[in-house]
Amino acid sequence: MIKERVSSPCEIRQGTSPVILGFPHTGTKVPAEIADRLNDNGRMLADTDWHIHELYDGLLDNVTTVRATFHRYVIDANRDPAGVSLYPGQNTTGLVPETDFDGKAIWKDGQGPDETDIVMRLRDFHAPYHAALAAEIERVRAIHGIAIIYDCHSIRSHIPFLFEGKLPDFNIGTDMGKTCDSAIEQATLTVVEATEGYDSVLNGRFKGGWTTRHYGRPDTGVHAIQMELAQSTHLETEAPPFAYDAAKADRLRVHLKNILVRIEQIAPGLKR
Known about the structure:
Strand order of the largest sheet: 1-2-4-3-5-8-6-7
Keywords: Hydrolase
EC number: 3.5.3.8
Protein name: Formiminoglutamase
GO molecular function: formimidoylglutamase activity
Organism: Rhizobium laguerreae
């Protein structure tokens, strides 16, 4: 039985599956006092993981979900709270982004976040989201002896500021195999490599964000894997209004469901 509750700044659906879906980047809520400081470019909220919670909805019975309702421009729930870069030496965005994924400013001149803003946003948004996620991990691990976090993401397929060329459709991240049992990684890879009309990569440009790297500790019974989808797989266009393409999405959902079901099926064999 699924239990739902909304505890701003996140939405939680409690299920009994060993799998937990994380959605750190689908939220679009920006408090008025923060929105007033965004410039016209920032107010587009272009770097949202558009419709990802809708894409995964109903794919796995009794799955737990934890979804941030705030936008990543408020604070990025998938970044190290200490501000350490996930990809040293590469272009990326930080804990509280100063630019969008194209390297363009998102704040009005002189109104970008300062250290006080960051401390407050860590307290009011980032910490509550991760407290909720950590609580669900412990609850699920108490039921099954393990918990598997599948962190759900999407991004435009062409972003020269972040990567060259076209991003593959399926981007699996396990921090080079550190964050989950190899059986989880292999099950996911087997599904995506068998799909027709899609391409994929394991630990390419995206190796897993802070959520995956922080919680993924297989020796403790907590496994984590990130899936970054190219938005061309489920949007009409990768530009405003970033509309959901039901036909594309329905085709993609078949494969996503297959991944989640396989992960759930192998979970009992992963007990410590």
